[in-house]
Amino acid sequence: MDAHPDAHLKESKVDGKLVYEGHFLKVQRDTIRLPDGKQAVREHIRHPGAVVILPLFDDGSVLLERQFRYPLDQVFIEFPAGKIDAGEDHLECAKRELREETGYTATDWQFVCTIHNAIAYSDEHLDIYLARGLTAGERKLDDGEFLDIYKAPLSELLEQVRLGKVTDVKTVIGAFWLEKIINGQWTLPSA
């Protein structure tokens, strides 16, 4: 039996320890064995995962958020998103986050894809969902959560991406997916 084709790239954990445990992030420091047999250290953030919602109105515009992000000390334009709670169904999390952050509900949900946004130092994954059939309602922001919502044409969002005014990776990728979906170039996976 042949070895796995990527065996020459594989790193193996020798030992490790949790060096920090916060509210929802954990930092792990592992000693690993490299493919050549030498050892090295890998530090990485363990994250429970999150969902991203691409709220698309019938007229082709999208629902966006403006939110201050402390690590970079600035307000970012983003698609609605949120952390998956332990044991929570990912689609149910997306529905909950859209309702809590924006007040909107959607009648049509489709899974788009999973992305890994920081592969060099985190195991975080984001499941992206397309939400259509939007109806406005009342927001229920979490304590300590402050954000504005607004509607914009997808073309405007894409121009802001092109100009470097929108740099949030989940929003950039979501905008590109939406452009391809709306133009009929990409179809979504079947349920």
What would you call the shape? globular
Order of the strands making up the biggest sheet: 7-4-9-8
Q: What integer value in Å does the Rg equal? A: 19 Å
DSSP helical segment count: 3
Portion in beta strands? 35-45%
Mean pLDDT: 96
What can you tell me about this protein's structure?
Belongs to the Nudix hydrolase family. NudK subfamily. InterPro entries: NUDIX_hydrolase-like_dom_sf, NUDIX_hydrolase_CS, NUDIX_hydrolase_dom. Its cofactor is Mg(2+). This protein is an alpha+beta fold and 191 residues long. The chain has 2 domains: 40 residues, no CATH class; 133 residues, Nucleoside Triphosphate Pyrophosphohydrolase. Helices cover 19% and strands 40% of the residues. It is built from 3 helices and 10 strands, in the order E-E-E-E-E-E-E-H-E-E-E-H-H. The strands form 3 sheets. A 4-stranded mixed β-sheet has the order 7-4-9-8, with helices on both faces. Strand 1 and strand 2 form a beta hairpin. The longest helix is centred in the C-terminal third of the chain and has 14 residues. The mean pLDDT is 96.
Question: Can I get a quick summary?
Answer:
The chain is built from three helices and ten strands. With 191 residues, the chain is α+β, with helices and mostly antiparallel strands.
